[in-house]
């Protein structure tokens, strides 16, 4: 299994960091692409740098690299997770505009029938955002805003991040125990 992780210019790169850490722990092969705005958000929001995130991935490609194997439908990968997903990227994907490698990889995932998960980080949502999300959802794209549940009584930001990452892993069919599941809370 190979998961392509894309980081765009929206707040919430802590989700991408944790996803890459867990995928590495589970020996899942990853490719990483980071937009220019994503690089700036990493500097602002994380206590680690881009090199750390690159070290967690098996492959790294610049967002301008259209010669990357990921740009071709003949290159095999299982799924793509865009975390966080800016509304600019979501709009480009919804409208088939592959102006960079991240959008092209999403386009490949859609056209080849592979799993695509977008984790949009914006609020409130405008009608344009919602229409783009609905359009993509109708194409089979998983739209997964990073909205935590609180039934597990999170004690830290890390617990909230783990809930969201755990749900992403669930959608990738990767077993995990990053959070308390609904049925589990009754067993306490």
TrEMBL record:
Chemical reaction(s) catalysed: dimethylallyl phosphate + FMNH2 = prenylated FMNH2 + phosphate
Report the function annotation for this chain.
Flavin prenyltransferase that catalyzes the synthesis of the prenylated FMN cofactor (prenyl-FMN) for 4-hydroxy-3-polyprenylbenzoic acid decarboxylase UbiD. The prenyltransferase is metal-independent and links a dimethylallyl moiety from dimethylallyl monophosphate (DMAP) to the flavin N5 and C6 atoms of FMN.
Protein origin, superkingdom: Archaea
List positions binding dimethylallyl phosphate. 151, 167
* Signal peptide from the UniProt entry: none
The protein in question is named: Flavin prenyltransferase UbiX
Keywords from the UniProt entry: Flavoprotein, FMN, Prenyltransferase, Transferase
At the top of the EC hierarchy, this enzyme's class is transferase
**Which amino acids does the record list as binding FMN?**
9-11, 35, 86-89, 121
- Key word Transcription present in the record? no
A GO MF term: flavin prenyltransferase activity
**Record EC number:** 2.5.1.129
Organism name: Methanofervidicoccus abyssi
* Boundaries of every Flavoprotein domain copy: 1-172
**Sequence similarity:** Belongs to the UbiX/PAD1 family.
Q: Does the keyword Flavoprotein apply?
A: yes
Q: Which InterPro entries match?
A: Flavin_trans-like, Flavoprotein, UbiX-like
């Amino acid at each position: 299994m190979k998961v392509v992780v894309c980081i765009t210019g929206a707040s919430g790169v802590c989700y991408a960091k944790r996803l890459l850490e867990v995928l590495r722990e589970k020996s899942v092969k990853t490719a990483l692409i980071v937009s220019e705005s994503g690089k700036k958000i990493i500097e602002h929001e994380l206590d680690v740098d881009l090199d750390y995130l690159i070290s967690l991935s098996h492959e790294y490609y610049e967002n301008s690299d259209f010669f990357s194997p990921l740009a071709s439908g003949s290159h095999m990968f299982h799924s793509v997770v865009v975390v966080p997903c800016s509304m600019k990227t979501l709009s480009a994907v919804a409208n088939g505009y592959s102006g960079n490698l991240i959008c092209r990889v999403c386009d490949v995932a859609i056209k080849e029938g592979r799993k695509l998960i977008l984790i949009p980080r914006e609020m409130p949502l405008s009608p344009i955002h919602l229409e783009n999300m609905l359009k993509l959802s109708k194409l089979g794209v998983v739209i997964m805003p990073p909205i935590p549940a609180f039934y597990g009584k999170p004690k830290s930001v890390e617990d909230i991040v783990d809930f969201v990452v755990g749900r992403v892993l669930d959608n990738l069919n990767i077993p995990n125990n990053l959070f308390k599941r609904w049925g589990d809370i009754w067993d306490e």
